[in-house]
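Subject: sequence -> structure tokens, single chain

Hey, anyone have a minute? Need the predicted structure for the following. Not urgent.
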Amino acid sequence: MDRIIVNHPDQLVIDDLIDIIGDEEICRMAKFKKIFDLLPCGIEVLDEKGVVVVCNKADREIFGVDEDAFVNFNDFEDPNVPNEILQEIDKGHAFNVLLPYDFSKISYTSIYKDCIKYLSVRGIPLYTKHQTIKGYFVVIVDDTLYHQQHAILEDSFTKLQVAINTGNSIIWEYDVINNQVFIDPVLNNCKDNSLLQFISRISFQNKEKFYESIHPEDLVRVRECCLEPLLNGDITHYTTTYRRVFNDEAMWIRVNARGFKYDENKKPSKVIFYASDITQEVQLENSLINLERESDRILNAIPDLIFVISNEYKFQKVFASGAKSKGLYLSEKDTIGKSIDDIFDPEKALFFKEKINNALKDNVETEFDYSLQINGKQCFFKSRISPLEDGSTMHIIRDITDKIVQQDEINRLNAIMDIILSSVPLVVSVKNVSDNFKYIYFNSEAEHVMNRRAKDILGKTDFDLFPDQTWASEIRSKDLKAIAEGRLSEYAVNYKDPSGKIRIVNALRTRVQSKNEVYLVAMLWDITEQHNNELELIKARESDRLKTNFLANISHEIRTPLNAIIGFASIVGDAYDEFERDYYLNIINENSNQLLKLIDDIIDLSSLEVDKFEFKKRSVELKDICRSVYNMFSQKTKPEVNFIFDDNILPSVFLYTDSKRLHQVLSNLIDNAVKFTNKGSIRFGYEIQAEENTDKQFVRIYVEDTGIGIDKNYNHVLFDRFFKADNFTQGFGLGLPIAKKLTEEMGGELKFISEIGCGSKFWIKIPILSNS
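Reply:
Had a minute. Here:
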């Protein structure tokens, strides 16, 4: 246990006494209490169990007891004695400890109740001739006063450190005799102290170096008026401010200096300095001075009459250099010290007094307009009264005559413009961009189109007006684009009014800059009826063109197999032998089948387009349909083409659909694969897949070939009727358009990927549905 051992004034006497105790003869002297009573410290002789045998007068005074109350008291059982001391005693060791003695823990005295004393206790064991402990000799010194003084000193030192560090200050000492400067590192120990950091970079161990660190403009004043008079004994202390310089960096410092330890000539041998960093304070003060000057300059420059009226209605200050129009000019010489009654006519003076009283009563800034007859002309003014803390009021008066005249003219022109804009069949609206695109103008046509009154629109944004926030966001996006580019034009675009009705409009958005405000002017032409008429005309023309193209293509597609049938039928009778005749008949049969399929496709396509195509849905096994398609085309592929259908590894899938139409779709896809694949393979199959983020499933049926492939430039027209990549290859006919239409009617989709020279892959996705 760590204890503070205090060097008491009587310590040497105590040490000598402890050193001689132990001799048996001296122990017998303990019986002579008069000897111990003469000692300034407490003396106790204890037996081997810790019971007090003898105690002197000083000891009894320390503990506030008489001899009878203290003798036979067992010190080892005192609750104030720590276990560490008892353990040392058990080991036969001497002990020396500073003991905080709490009198509230003992009951043998009432003098020091609820009191704590700090006692310096030293003790040694007393031995017999046989080296056995027969008692203890204990010396006790009351160090309470010294301990309290030491605590007060530490507390004061801590407070001094806090004060120094809080104020960015340091304390340093100058030894006049040795010409040395000393900065106490214990007292000045804050790393964040800006002054200490600055001073640490300056080496000034003596007075000469100190003078060198002072700014040249401050040096003479500090040396001749402050430090030298103090060192000569002319003054005892001084307070001043100056700048310390290091590497062109200056710091403002406030110093309090005081001499002490004066010699016979009344000159100090030492000087203590308390210095504080006031750089920010000086900078702030300079800024305030500059700000005040700048404020006065600004107030005198503005074209308003500004003055301060006291609570007695007298002019205290006037800023009127710029207020010379309309008779507002009031010079300081003509107004300072005069009352309102001296400056204004009685009616206006009373008017101003009422306004001043109301402003002071409510303690709020008050604005009001008024007019005056000046040189026979009606002039208008705006006045603002601001209450000040001392009961006076500041007045700002502005001439608004020109503004009123201009506003009247603007109102007249706005009325004319409003009549014009309300008469044109255009939607015209204006938004204030600076105020979150709020509407500030809405003409009558806009009211008609939006089906809203202007009063319900003005001051609101599109997000307030349109329930569909996505549409409102789209409008805002176009507005922002118009602001960025200056102008945005749109033709035949959809416009949704707040009720959700779609209109076709031409739109023009234009950015308009007006001083500090930015406006967006929007004009809309409703061309819904005109657009619909144009669409009908375009549809009629397109329908006529498609019919013409269809007839031209169908005539070509029919003519090709028909020419073959007629040509070979005319020569079949002239065949030389049966082999040649069979060859001609086979060509006739193939072209007859092709012609029959073409006619069937035309009928199917026509039925699909007029929604007269019938679907007979039932539960069917997909593998059976695929196997039937495979068997139908397995003999039609070219010898160099491998037609693959792995039905053994395919799962069993039941679909609720029209098996005939599904068979037709797959046949059309494989027919194209057979037609355009001269070597390689055609792979045909299907797989079950799950739709993302749902529990739904669909079957994906694919036809993949290694044929000639399709140029990506033709992807968008691949499903057109009779599409041909060029004039030298066979076209797709009507198979793909019919397959796409049938797939969509069955609730699926038809897609493909293809690359020139690498082949194509077509697939259809059909949902797996039950007959429910």
